[in-house]
Write a structure and sequence with these properties.
mainly alpha, 148 residues, 7 helices
Length: 148
């Protein structure tokens, strides 16, 4: 199964979206990268490091700016018609989703034959370490549990 198809299935499971948002908003992790790490089931350290570098750069240069604009458009904007603002916000949400998919498709190329059968929680902890942080183990455990 492709990473994107696996992600759509995983994200629809109860608790996954909420756990991903906590890891993104409260811990600064990129959820596309985390889901890739689970899908890759324990990519070797050099691949994990390469993926973390790519995801960090894409996150900082593309995803965070797009996400910031989307969030800014959520409340009313004085002088701008609400329907037009919401239409633009929907367009930006679609662009944000496309940017996440572009990242995931490129991460999937890094993980060719990288599947090591590692359990989700271990893969998430390794991914957080490669990201350069002490793993938020409780939040990662919530995501791992929701992915079962």
């Amino acid at each position: 199964m492709s990473l994107w198809d696996w992600t759509l299935d995983a994200y629809s499971r109860p608790g996954v979206a909420e756990a991903c948002l906590v890891l993104q908003d409260e811990h600064g992790l990129n959820t596309a990268y985390l889901l890739w790490a689970v899908w890759a089931e324990g990519a070797p350290d050099p691949v994990l490091d390469q993926a973390a570098g790519l995801a960090k750069a894409w996150d900082n240069e593309v995803l965070k700016p797009v996400r910031a604009v989307r969030k800014r458009l959520k409340p009313a904007f004085p002088g701008i018609d609400d329907a037009e603002r919401e239409g633009l916000r929907d367009d930006i949400k679609a662009a944000e989703l496309r940017a996440e998919r572009v990242l995931m498709e490129n991460l999937a190329h890094l993980a060719k034959n990288a599947s090591g059968g590692m359990p989700a929680q271990h893969a998430l902890i390794a991914a957080a370490r490669a990201w350069g942080m002490a793993p938020p183990e409780q939040a990662l455990a919530v995501l791992a549990g929701a992915l079962r």
